[in-house]
Specification:
By secondary structure, this protein is of the alpha/beta class. The chain has one domain: Spore Coat Polysaccharide Biosynthesis Protein SpsA, Chain A. 42% of the residues lie in helices and 22% in strands. It is built from nine helices and 14 strands. The strands form four sheets. A seven-stranded mixed sheet has the order 3-2-1-4-9-6-12, sandwiched between helices. The chain has a three-stranded antiparallel sheet with strand order 5-13-14. Strands 7-8 form a two-stranded antiparallel ribbon. Helix 6 crosses helix 8. It is globular, with a radius of gyration of 18 Å. The C terminus is likely disordered.
């Protein structure tokens, strides 16, 4: 009899990015203990990594599956974001075709989460279709819009897919940007905040943490679904990632002001 799964947790994974794989798997074991009706789906485009990951699922006692996918991209494409976008899309297709789960929780393999992450995110998504919980970015503060901690209901995944764009000038639009835009265009209700504890590892011994916290009015406006939609749509027209560059400018200005004060 097939195990009942209410939530699929999924992330792309590849060998260079698996530098905290033991920490990650231990955290996912805690998550599954807190919420047994879930499974972990790892998507990789490295065929030699599949058996290793399957063995790790077994050794940690995790319910889950390894998906092998191909990275399909234009000949001029150079960004590794294509690997991530194709991996997330492979998980979306698995979710819709192979499970009857109600929710998909998108995470990253270089992060660990509050073991109660599913319970917390399921509470926050009530009355909404997509929920983003903030987490530390690699270089620019706390992000509220990435797929590193995002819960999506089944109805939204049936309409919006994961894709990315790379312009010939080298500018990129990542899969989480375009997924947010497509979801808003379909009139899906989107919620953002910092709802749970999360840690992001830059390296095995270099980690940033975030705790649940309220967000100020400026952040609410700057990350509102409508403004984000307009900025992302504008980025596609001018072939320039406006949201990313605006965020970097704001972060550097805040950091400079903080250094002057102290």
């Amino acid at each position: 009899m097939r195990r009942a799964v209410d939530v699929v947790i999924g992330t792309p994974i590849y060998r260079p990015g698996a530098y905290i794989i033991d920490i990650f798997m231990s955290n996912q074991r805690e998550v599954q203990r807190e919420y047994p009706s879930c499974e972990l789906v790892l998507a990789t485009n490295e065929i030699d990594l599949v058996s290793e990951l399957e063995q790790m699922l077994d050794s940690y006692g995790l319910a889950g599956k390894i998906i092998l996918y191909d990275t399909v991209k234009p000949g001029y494409a150079k960004s590794k974001v294509w690997n991530i976008a194709c991996g997330r899309e492979a998980i979306r297709q698995y979710f819709l075709s192979q499970t009857e789960a109600r929710y998909y929780l998108s995470i990253d393999a270089d992060m660990v989460y509050d073991p109660a992450v599913i319970k917390i995110m399921k509470t926050e998504i009530q009355g909404y279709d997509v929920v983003f919980s903030g987490y530390p970015l690699r270089d620019f503060g706390i992000g509220l819009t990435g797929a590193g901690c995002m819960m999506v209901n089944r109805e939204t995944l049936e309409k919006a897919r994961f894709r990315c764009l790379e312009f010939k000038n080298g500018e990129m639009m990542s899969e989480d940007n375009l997924f947010e835009m497509d979801s808003f265009r379909q009139r899906r209700k989107i919620k953002k905040g910092v709802f749970l504890r999360a840690s992001h590892y830059k390296k095995e011994n270099d980690v940033e943490h975030v705790e649940p916290q309220p967000i100020g009015m400026y952040r609410k406006i700057a990350t509102s679904a409508l403004l984000r939609y307009l900025l992302i749509r504008g980025s596609l027209i001018v072939k320039y990632n406006i949201p990313r560059h605006l965020w970097r400018i704001r972060w550097r200005m805040n950091k400079s002001i903080g250094n002057l004060i102290h």
